[in-house]
Write a structure and sequence with these properties.
Strand content: 25-35%
Number of strands: 27
Structural class: mainly beta
Strand order of the largest sheet: 3-2-1-27
Number of helices: 1
Distance between the termini: 32 Å
Length: about 475
């Protein structure tokens, strides 16, 4: 049994009691990423490599997003716990949820490199949303046990135990933790009743979704498994089904040691209902499969996700581009309904794609969902040489290194946020990074009214290696 819990007996009793608590009736769901409660989702941009890490929130509106409506959050922001330090990686992952049940989405930020005296590295910081978001402080959670290193590598907020209330889930290098309903406390971390993580696993993240017919949400954990000597790693992907009962009992490994090399799912895992059957489907990228990379779709069912799925490369019929070595197709994936037809579409980044003979410009591809599953018919491709997309196709931009599909302007169609960690903002710059937003439409993505911004638009100085927009809150 691995790190079951350090919570006191009363906290365990309360959590167990919460398993049987009825779900709230008639309470409207809080819109995720709507931090100020105005009915528009906001765009959260993580830049973990900049001076300890930053999160920039650009507020959504009917006209989209603009740096004029934004706020920067760091560990030096008044009310935010902690102090910015170069190793923190604050913003390594970003998610949201109404953690304190006040009707506003809160910002949840992982900092797996955070130094904590007497404990392993890692923390998760929750900054409260509100009518004036991020001005009323927040709270920080650190490693519950001595073996919970890398606490905060991934986080999610969804109903794990099936009682209708949201639960904060946090993963570290080799541990999985969850918190009962209500505002979490430092002593309230719970581990699964059944230890399902294999020896040598190092988790990179966790994704929540309705991948099966459970009373709660399911959670996909992903990362890598090191061999006994620590010299090689292979992919690890597992499905933990939620609902009442012993957390961890219903678990299946989808990939565990059988996918060597390439992307180890660290940024390339996303979920959404592609075929409209009511179950979320899982998309995982693997840059080591095929010549230039690939992604795989596993369709959710009443009993969960299958071990195998359907894999696509740029050599697949209808997929834009050419399957070339080192394209890194599948390095980033996102799932969301860009067309508004109630079936999720899939965006795939190929940040090393050559464009018009220029290497490593980068590219994204959008494939559309249908009642029959993912379709390659009408697939789209965008890069910085696409008419309407701001910027220029330059070597080493790596457009598509991060992606996110969410409806920002509240028109029922998901908009695509794209990061390019290698974009050089000023002459002589190096990996400053930038972000773009392409709007969704009934026919797919459009470059009409596309916007772009970088760190200087939010008051940050240009710093080599900042890699602005390395991650997005998804």
């Amino acid at each position: 049994m691995r790190a079951r819990t350090l919570a006191v007996a009363t906290a365990v009793a309360l959590a167990v009691a919460g398993l049987a608590a009825p779900a709230a009736v008639g309470t409207p769901a809080v819109l995720t990423y709507d931090f100020n409660g105005d009915g528009y989702r906001d765009l959260a941009i993580g830049t973990p490599k900049a001076s300890g890490g930053t999160v920039t929130v650009v507020f959504g509106s009917a006209s989209g997003v603009s740096p004029a409506r934004s706020v920067n959050v760091t560990q030096d922001t008044p009310g935010v716990p902690g102090v910015s330090e170069s190793v923190d990686r604050f913003g390594e992952n970003v998610t949201s949820g109404d953690v304190n049940s006040d009707g506003y989405a809160d910002l949840i930020v992982g900092a797996p490199g955070e130094e904590v005296t007497g404990k392993p590295r890692g923390s998760v910081t929750i900054i409260w949303g509100g009518a004036k978001p991020f001005t009323s402080g927040g709270m920080s959670l650190t490693a519950p046990t001595g073996e919970a290193s890398g606490f905060g590598e991934g986080a999610a907020f969804a109903d794990l135990d099936g009682d209708g209330g949201g639960n904060l889930v946090v993963v570290g290098d080799g541990t999985f933790w969850w918190y009962g309903d209500g505002k979490p406390t430092q002593g309230g971390a719970l581990a699964p009743e059944v230890d399902f993580l294999p020896p040598g696993v190092r988790l990179d993240g966790v994704v929540a979704g309705r991948f099966s017919a459970t009373d709660g949400n399911d959670f996909v954990v992903h990362g890598r498994i090191d061999n006994a000597s620590g010299t090689t790693s292979t992919a690890y992907l597992g499905l933990l089904r939620g609902g009442p009962g012993d957390i961890g009992f219903s678990y299946s490994a989808l990939a565990a040691g059988d996918t060597p090399g390439g992307t180890l799912f660290s940024a390339a895992v996303a979920g959404g209902d592609i075929n409209g059957d009511g179950y979320d489907d899982l998309v995982t990228g693997n840059t080591g499969a095929g010549k230039g990379g690939s992604f795989t779709v596993r369709y959710g069912t009443s009993t969960g996700l299958p071990v195998t799925g359907k894999t696509y490369t740029q050599a697949s019929a209808g997929v834009p581009g050419t399957d070339e070595p080192y394209d890194n197709f599948g390095a980033a994936v996102a799932v969301g309904d860009a067309t508004g037809d109630a079936r999720a579409d899939v965006a795939v980044g190929a940040p090393n794609e050559t464009v018009d003979g220029v290497r490593d410009v980068g590219n994204i591809v959008l494939l559309k969902g249908s009642w029959n599953g993912l379709s390659t018919s009408g697939a789209q491709s965008f890069h910085q040489a696409t008419p309407g997309v701001p910027g220029a196709a330059e070597a080493g931009d790596h457009f598509g290194s991060s992606v996110r599909l969410r409806d920002i302007n509240h028109n029922g169609k998901a908009d695509l946020a794209v990061g390019a960690y290698g974009e050089d903002v000023l002459p002589g710059g190096y990996d400053d990074g930038a972000a773009w937003v392409l709007r969704g439409s009934t026919t797919g993505l459009t470059s009409t009214s596309a916007t772009a911004f970088n760190a200087t638009d939010f008051g940050y100085p240009v710093v080599d290696g900042r890699r602005f927009a390395d991650t997005f809150g998804r």
